Amino acid sequence: MAFPDKPIAHLLGSNGPVHAVAYSASPGTYILAGSSDRSIRLYNPSPSTSVAPSSHVTKPHQTSAAPPIPQGRLIQSYSAHGYEVLSLSIAADNARFASAGGDRSVFLWDVATAQTIRRLGGNQQSHSGRINCVAFGGDDDALLVSGGLDTTVRVWDVRSGSFKPIQVLTEARDAITAVCVRGAEIVSGSVDGRVRTYDVRAGRCVTDVVGPSVTSLSMSKDGKAVLVGSLDSKIRFMDRRDGGCLKTYADPALKNEQLRVQSILGGKEQYVLAGDEMTGAPGQNGEGRLWAWDTLTGDVVAKVSVPWGPVGSEPKKKLIGKDGKEKERSNVISCVAWREDGFGDQYCVSGTSGVVTVFGYH
Amino acid sequence: MSHKRSRANFEADLQAQQSPYVLFGTPLPPLDPEVRDDGSYVPVWKQEVRDERGRKRLHGAFTGGFSAGYFNTVGSKEGWTPSTFVSSRSNRWKDGAEGQGQGQRPEDFMDDEDLAEKAESEKLQTATDFAGLGSTGTDGVRRGGLADVFRAQGETMGVKLLRRMGWKDGQGIGPKVRRGARLDVGGQSKVGGDSDGQTHLFAPENVPMIALIKKLDRKGLGFEGESKLTPISSSANKTVGGSSDEEDGSGPLIRPSAFNRKKTKPSRGGIGMGILNDTGSDDEDPYEVGPQISYNRVIGGDKKKKKALKATPVNPSLRSVPVFISKKNALAKAGTNLRKCHDGRLPLDGFVFGVRPDNFASEINSEGKYPPPKIPPGWKSAKQRNMDSANGAYTSTSDAAKSSQLDPKSRAALLGEAQLPGKSVFDFLDPAARNRLAAATGKVNLPPALGEVPEGYALTPEEKQRQLLAQVPTLDKSIAISALTRGAQGSAPYADDEAKRGRYRTYLEFSAGFGKVTLPAKAPLQSNEDWLRELREFHSCAMIFKPMTGMMASRFTTSTSKFIAGSTVSSTDVLTKPAPKPADPAEEAAKMGMYGTMTRSTTDFYPTRLLCKRFNVPPPAHLQPDADSEAATRNSASTTAAPNPYTQSGSNGTSHASGVPITLDELLQQAQGDSNAAIAVIEGEKKSTQPEIATAVPAKPEVDASVNEALEGKRAQDDVLKAIFGDSSDDEE
Predict the structure, then answer these.
(1) What is the reported pLDDT for A177?
(2) Where residue A163 sits, what CATH number does that domain have?
(3) Scanning every residue of chain B, which has its alpha carbon at the shortest distance from the alpha carbon of A345?
(4) Distance between CA atoms of residues A288 and A350, nearest Å
(5) What share of chain A is helix, strand, coil (3-state, %, to 5)?
(6) A41 in a domain, yes or no?
(7) Which of A52, B291, B556, B653 is the most exposed place for a label (fewest CB within 10 A)?
């Protein structure tokens, strides 16, 4: 099965760059997109009834005459944030999800009513800076783990009404950019170039030095390895048992040295997917790029060109760079999500354009 | 006695009986205790406190209660209500002014006490205006120094009366006097007026009050001090008989005593007259003492005198009518006694003016009555010193003694005395000590120090050396060593003096006890003191330059740039980069791609109990040393529910819908190029191993909590699982 590189849907509605996308828990019917326009949108990428004026929904890539890509349906918009939304995490029962961002608190939402259940923050014991990442964890998703610019990972109890975090992990010496929970382990990636694994069961904190600043973490299903994206344009596949590097994924044309670009495992962990901050080889017409490597060989499987949006929605605004010259505007793919944690049949990407593009095997 | 006597009768009777001889006043009370009398003794319990109006002050409550009610303090039943209070709301001040003159006075609001206080504070006295001319109440001297400043404003009543009678300020009191006009300003000229002899009626001259000056200074009686810089008019004022018509602005109410005092006050200066005190008039005798009373000293009078006599009273007819001239007046006219009192009158009958002795003496001398005897020419006193005999220059005995070169010994030799057996202290002092003594005492004539050493105390050179070495400051060995090491790092003191640095090092090595290092050698011209001083300096220097320890050492770092005397610093070195931090070996390894044990570090982590509970895991062993059995069972339950990440669990794989999952481990192992043969072998065994797994999983609850077999037995399980699922990767290709 070839790597799916054809977009099957566009999810529109965001007025700014999208920083986080997430599939709902299994079976991953819906997509949540957290935008810098301070709201979170819930989409159905493949609705049964057509949303867009285009009539052909099925098999768009089989028609050669560039059929219009259908639009997903915007189901709900969640707006309570006062700042950009930087991270999303959906509970396993799909009833709640958590979001965090610039307003230094973790919001726990009720999906159905579109209201926040809890807002963890705004007091002395909460984050004192932007929250970069949030993840559910624990038994029955009883915990929320968040990490942010204040170099701390805070573990919140969702069940109790306490506004104080259960625990604050302060080992990191720079901002926390990624956190993931598996079992009784909390793995955090920090700008200080370290991946820290807090094993609650054993009471051990294992620090793995990666070197460059870590921006993304994606754990394999079996928990034996973790994919570490870092700001040296490389993605490393690290063995969690002994800290060794199993594989390194890179490409001369890939540049990732400034932006937080997410990298995930996908396609039943066959592929490693990563966005591109588009400084190495600028795309045309505002398009972005998505890289896919074979997990085992480390070869580039695909270089998917992600359009800015639907046809006709290319960026009109010109971007003036720091040097005063007109800069080509490009769609920096900053967030990627694979359905069912990498085992589904589709994935979605988004970035600067604010349009979530869904790719799939169909 | 049939009828009862009245009490008054009884008492009067009793008094008459007890004290029959009292004719005046009240007799002492009778000794009969039954008789009531104010002066008699009353026991305390019978005593009553009454106010000045005889009202009882204490009521009830064991007679200690103080009643502030109606009967005692204020006069109304309702309590204190000012009876004369008139509300100003209806009765305005304006209306009150028409009616009663005044609306409300403060007295209306006063009670008895306040009124009593007010009455007490009032004193009857005359107003200041009525104090009159002669009152001493306003006298500045008596009232205090500032009286002149705070004089009563306006005129006194006496002045007002005088004004009514035609008196004017500055004039004397009395009938007008006919005399010639004095046209000169200062009034220096005497009574004689114009040359044309015209006379006018003038008010009599103002007469100053007699000032009885309290003597406050310690000068001799009659001493007035030097005359001082005063305006002409005031100096003229001194002249008692002189004119005071043209008195300057000072009003008539300035008491002359105060006026005089003001003038005498600055007279505390020394004798003599400074240039500043010169009034400019040469004819004034600066040493003149005594009142400058002007009078004629010439008996018989002269033309002026006659002119003065021409002054006639106001009434011209007085002249024509023969009048009785008393003897005194005749005498006055004869000029025998022309001195007048200060008020310009002749002294009273029977009184003569006192004469001050010095004044008198000067008078005598001026008259030349008793000249001192004249010294005959050519007389020489026998007591006169002959100054020529001392050869002009005078030399004191001490000077003469100083000039002699003899010391006590030589003097003794000269005098033929026996030599003293002892020696002076200075014989044993060394010159340095003698100089110190001389500097301390300030005497330069100390005998020279000889620096002798008594026989018994003479030191051998070895002993001297030992003594010197004993004075060398001892440095702690550890400090010396640390200072040496610090010096070896390049930050030694005395960087600009190589020789001194060498000596310093030698001293440190000596203190550290390195081998046979001796103290730095003394320079040939260096005195012992200098040598020792330098060593002491080295000692304190080593104390300072020893390396820092502990907290301080962590705060400071040694500068890497060394300053070497004479070397030129290139311009590129001005900006010195801080030394790179010692790189973290883990980071170094990560940079080189050597991920693994070198980049991994493990620390203890203490999860909170709630965190463990939420993760549904038992707290780690170092958090809870004594894990009970319940936790152990829970542990086993949780391991089945949430599989250990390092354990490959079969249930995970089967849950996925889309085909058989390929685990990463297998992928990696396949990538390492495992042969297909192995897979074929495993495939064959697949069916046989599956039941084994099924049996192995229920066996898990028996796992001991302290030993995690899932972790330790991983390798074997991997092989088993690979055997199970190893073939599934083929259909992905």
Answers:
(1) 94
(2) 2.130.10.10
(3) B658
(4) 9
(5) 5, 45, 50
(6) yes
(7) B556
DSSP-assigned letters across all residues of A74-91? EEEEEE--SS-EEEEEE-
Q: How far is CA B171 from CA A5, B131, B167, B174, in A?
A: 134, 20, 7, 9
Check if the beta carbon of residue B267 is closer than 8 Å to that of residue B204: no
Q: What is the pLDDT of residues B337-383, one digit of tens each?
A: 466 777 777 777 788 777 655 555 555 555 666 777 888 888 888 87
Number of domains in chain A: 1
User: Which residue, among A362, A278, A286, A283, has the nearest Cα to A319 in the 3D structure?
Assistant: A286
Q: How many residues does chain B have?
A: 733
Q: Which structural domain, as residue segments, surrounds residue A183?
A: 18-47+71-209
Q: Burial code of B653-684, b = ≥16 C-beta within 10 A, e = fewer?
A: beeeeeeebbbbbbbbbbeeeeeeeebeebee
Inter-chain residue contact B615 with A138, CB threshold 8 Å: yes
- Kindly list the residues from chain B whose CB atom is less than 8 angstroms away from the CB atom of residue A205: 602-605
Radius of gyration of chain A measured on its C-alpha atoms: 19
Report d(CA B548, CA B545) in Å as an integer: 8
Residue A317 lies in a domain: no
Which residues, listed in sequence order, are joined to residue B178 by a DSSP beta bridge? Answer: B201, B312
- Cβ-Cβ contacts under 8 Å for B134 (sequence gap 6 or more): none
Q: Which residues 245-304 in chain A show a CB within 8 A of chain B? A: 245-246, 248, 268-270, 295-297
Of A155, A166, A185, the CB nearest to B645: A185
Burial grade of B704 (CB within 10 A; 0-12, 13-18, 19 or more): exposed
Predicted complex ipTM: 0.87
Top mean pLDDT of A58-62, A215-219, B431-435 is at A215-219
Q: Write the CA distances from B173 to B134, B170, B342, B344, B658, integer angstroms.
A: 14, 9, 14, 12, 145
How many whole angstroms separate alpha carbon B307 and alpha carbon B195? 10
**Closest C-alpha to A201, from B596, B713, B634, B665:** B634
- Say how far residue B179 (Cα) sits from the centre of its chain: 68
Kindly identify which residue of chain A lies nearest to residue B635, measuring between CA atoms.
A201
Within-domain flag for A149 = yes
In a domain, A286, yes or no: no
The amino acid at residue B228 is K
Distances, alpha carbon B642 to alpha carbons A183, B99, B501, B624, B722, in Å: 7, 109, 73, 22, 21
Q: Do residues A189 and A195 lie in contact, with contact meaning Cβ atoms separated by under 8 Å? A: yes
